[in-house]
Predict the 3D structure of the following.
Amino acid sequence: MAIPVNRVYKTVLSILNKEQRGYLTPYEYNNLAVQAQKEMVEKLFYDYNKFLNLDNFNRINEGLADIPAKIQEQLDEFYAFTDITLSGAGVGTLPTDLYKVIDLTITNQTVKLEKVDKNRIPYLKSSPLTAPSTLFPVYYQRETDFVVEPAATNGSWSLGAIRLQYIQEPDNPRWGYTIDSNYGVNIYDENPFVSGGVIIGNRSMALVTTNDTVGLTDGSYPITIGTNGVTTSGSGSGVGITLTVAGGNSATVTAINITSAGTGFAVGDTITIPALNNYWLGANDIVITLRAQDLYSSSTEGSVDFRLHISNETELIITILGYAGLTIKDPQVLQSAVQLSQAATMSKSQQ
Amino acid sequence: MSLLGTTTAEQYYNVSQSFITTAAQASGGVSQGIYDLTVSRLPNAETDFLIYLNGTEINRSTYSYIGTGVNAGRVTIDVTAQPLAIDDTVVIEFIDRALGDYRFVSLVNIVNNFMYGYTGNGKVLNNVNKTDVLFHARRGVQEFSYEVSRVENIQEVDVPPTLTIPFPQDYVNYVRLSWVDTAGVEHPIFPARYTSRPSESILQDDQNDNIPGSNGEGYLFDEEGGTLQGTPSVTQQRFEDFKLDGFNSRGNQDDYYLFSHYLSNIYHRSSARTGSDPELNNFNGVFIIDEANGQFGFDSSMSGRTITIKYISDGNSPQLENIKVHKMAEDAMYKYIYHAILSTKLNIPEYQIQRAKKERRAAMRNAKLRLSNVKLHELTQVMKGKSKIIKH
């Protein structure tokens, strides 16, 4: 239930363009969108706590009026989990997209690991009443990893991998576009942005740096790295390519279409389709060389929607407008956005 | 039958779990590879059970077992080492027989139940560390062991010629010491209040005054400057040499409690000592509690006798899964933990703590009553003797 990045951009532009206030470029919009999403994700935690406090005073009702549950649903959009194998020293590596830990358990979730302050560890370990055990394990967190007790102390851990449930840092929203060659306007690209992925769709034949012109068989041929001897010089994988061979007796590769973006590709990577393993080729291998304009990472193409819950859309637009007011130096926009935001906050607080 | 838990009747009464092997349990082929069986009762290790295939025990090296974690309870039989076929009967026989366990709830469950029922958003305790709950739960087990569900451990030993036996390893306090006669009947032994075991027995020279700087005490010192100690102490030695039956018939003239105090009454009439102290009027012997050294001492009449020591422990164990609380005290345990946590948190209104305290006290009293095992018909039976005439 993500919020479409294009819809928000259109709404923001339509508000800003009223009375010719100004124009927000895709680049500016993308930057503000990242900032606005981060701000709103962080705010959800405080809202959740605030409404739980109200709940503690019996000021929350059930069903549709259960606001903490609603905010929890908004946070659920960012839920993720991963299973982490501990090293011999009881250390597990945290995922790079971790925003907030929900909890750590063993993978069947029957034993929960409790987070403890690092300065409490000596007390815990030295008392037989509180010493960590496989039934009541504890952990403490570091910058990029966590340490589990008793695994760190005795070097053994019989409970297997650790399941980390967490709030994931959302991908940056991105309004991707291509530029219309006739009119010079930006055209929204709804294809999903994939970092290190090859841009989906029909691509220029300039990609094919080594073609073959002798002995090819007409047809359309799907190519997958790792199949029929197809290799890459880089570390990319998962890309789906369809090559079209046409021309009869003087057949050659005439078109290249990317059907799936794959991941892990970089500019200059080559993909080689060997003639030896592919009956439809002639005597020579086909080589595809990736250019900057073929990858999402180095182009304006590919979009990422906001990961926020759909119910946050209005607040999101107001937040972006607030930042946009600063960008286009229009105090009226900024002031209006602030007022709208304050009104929304007050409305929520008067539960 | 109402049962919480997964232990089957076969596991409980027959201490075993039976399987008929199926193809679904086999991986790597029916006649080779491995068979996975899952037992619902969880022994700690392979050494805690035996496996019989069609009535014949199979070698322990042919199977493995996982006791904890995600795959806890999985028994894997290596079919290449121990051939199996479909529809074979595999019986896993547990070595330990745990009878009557249903009375108890484990500490692990207590903690988990408490975390779920009492803590979290919208609960009475909104943010509590599990380690805190565990600490108070284990403390609670100790307190309950002393106060509510007193589980008496009984150790049987013979009194050696040294007249000293160590406290049991998990001893906290004694309930009763008795010696056992040839009929197996226990005779209570009482603690001696009129003697003790000095923790220090300082050696002194005969003159007590000829050592320079001794101020006349005559204390003797070792090379490191510590006092020299007599072992055993004179008090202990004299008590051990003393014949307890002298209290009634063969005392020495300088035994204060025998003669100075009761001199006129001692041989007043055979088997009677009018005016004597009833505490001393028994032949069962006495014991001394040597708290400093963690041992019991006995008078010389106890040498060679078989005694039973009934004592209480603190209910704890290094293995958390072995710590249990009687179900009749389960609610009291929750109340105990709740009060303990509430009273150690900051900024909790005092009335709330007091209310928790009252609830805890009431629940503990209730649990104590339940566990005191007062049965009406047993009470009636005992009270029938009330009408008997007591002859003086």
